[in-house]
Amino acid sequence: MPNGMLLRSLFIATISSNRFLLIPSLNLLTFLAKPNRSFLFNVDRNPVLHYILKKTFYNQFCAGETLRETGACVKHFRDLGFKGFILTYAKELVMETPAKASTGLKPGVEVKEAKVANTHDKYIEDWRVGTLQTLDQIGNGDILALKTTGAGPTVTTAFTTGALPPKQMLDALEEVATECQNRGIRIIVDAESQAFQHGIGTTTLHLMRKFNRNGKALIWNTYQAYLKRTPAVLAEHLDAAAKHGFTLGLKVVRGAYILSDPRSLIHDSKEDTDAAYNAIAQGALRHHIGDFGASRPFPDVDLLLASHNRDSLLGAHRLHQQRLAAGLPTVQVTYAQLHGMSDDVSFSLLQERGVDGEAPDVYKCSTWGSMGECLGYLVRRAVENRDAVLRTRDELVALRREVGRRLFSS
Ligand SMILES: Cc1cc2nc3c(=O)[nH]c(=O)nc-3n(C[C@H](O)[C@H](O)[C@H](O)COP(=O)(O)OP(=O)(O)OC[C@H]3O[C@@H](n4cnc5c(N)ncnc54)[C@H](O)[C@@H]3O)c2cc1C
């Protein structure tokens, strides 16, 4: 890690681990992220504001505002020893008020394409172009992460009813998936607010059924372990994978929308969320989730553990290695952390050696887009840091130790 990046990480970790600094920063970011700000508070138009945010929060957590900046960031992380890079285009829906939860269709309900006029939708077209541009900045072995709400109101309206998006969006998704298949790039579909998640999950299932053939996942769906209903959704998707013979791309996260989503849908405590996360991760590694792997065969699963939680990740890695060493059935597993967060955890994983003598597959995940487009993403990172006081303190200690070591050795 270059010195400049180390010092910036130390600066951000100092803010993140101190409530008196973090809360005002979070409030400021939330204020700036509201749409239609006047010139003074418009991060894309006010050059002074833009400069300050760029040199601090933006560069810490985001890959770049232009293709050139983003390409340089992707190369930089490859040079640091990561297996590859996960890149997403930041454009997403910014909500003025917390999203209302979808009433949600019952599992198994047949879904139909949204009833919207099949005219050419500019938002979907912009999203398609932005996504294909993102694809041009990564290469073989990398991963493209998709935030589907960025495709605008016709798509989000469909998602709120649990339906598939309009045909123009499905065509765009299939075009992107085919392009990725040809270039050796895999795809993550991000989980978003609960208002849209039922439709997003339905759409991803539709894509996985088509593209996750030949025993490998081209596409991963994201499962938010903090939701009480996730085990039921996962059982439904495992059932679909078993019945239709495709590989389930199982990306597990804890969940990033605790501020805006209805609290009643989310586990009551952090401990319950941790237990739920570990149960899914370890269940997949043991080939045993609910009935699957007991009274029913376990379908093909490709696991991606997206987290900064050292215990969850190192625990999963050790279990995986134990099973491989004992010749027991297990799944393929990939690990990912966000750009600018928990580098100590990423590098700890990279230093592990498996039964084959190789380091595990670890990816860094970042987002690109204009400052304005990235603000919603930056707010979520600040909220996460606010809620992960212990983790950010550990990070701060690790960063201070490294700065001290470099000063001493020079
Ligand atoms: C590569 C990558 C991709 C990601 N993609 C997505 C995505 O598509 N969608 C998405 O929603 N998130 C995504 N996230 C963010 C993720 O959901 C978490 O918010 C973030 O990683 C923090 O959780 P953690 O596993 O790192 O661990 P920790 O820091 O140990 O856990 C923090 C998390 O625990 C949960 N939590 C905290 N307090 C409570 C409480 N009182 N009750 C219940 N639960 C609580 C919250 O989910 C919180 O974010 C992604 C993260 C990574 C690393």
Automatic annotation (TrEMBL):
It catalyses: L-proline + a quinone = (S)-1-pyrroline-5-carboxylate + a quinol + H(+). GO terms for cellular component: mitochondrion. GO terms for biological process: L-proline catabolic process to L-glutamate. Its EC number is 1.5.5.2. Its cofactor is FAD. Residues 120-389 form the Proline dehydrogenase domain. Keywords: FAD, Flavoprotein, Oxidoreductase, Proline metabolism. Pfam families: Pro_dh (PF01619). Gene3D superfamilies: 3.20.20.220. GO terms for molecular function: FAD binding; proline dehydrogenase activity. InterPro entries: FAD-linked_oxidoreductase-like (IPR029041), Proline_DH_dom (IPR002872), Proline_oxidase (IPR015659). The keyword Membrane does not apply. PANTHER family: PROLINE DEHYDROGENASE 1, MITOCHONDRIAL (PTHR13914:SF0), PROLINE OXIDASE (PTHR13914). Belongs to the proline oxidase family. Converts proline to delta-1-pyrroline-5-carboxylate. This is Proline dehydrogenase. It comes from Massarina eburnea CBS 473.64.
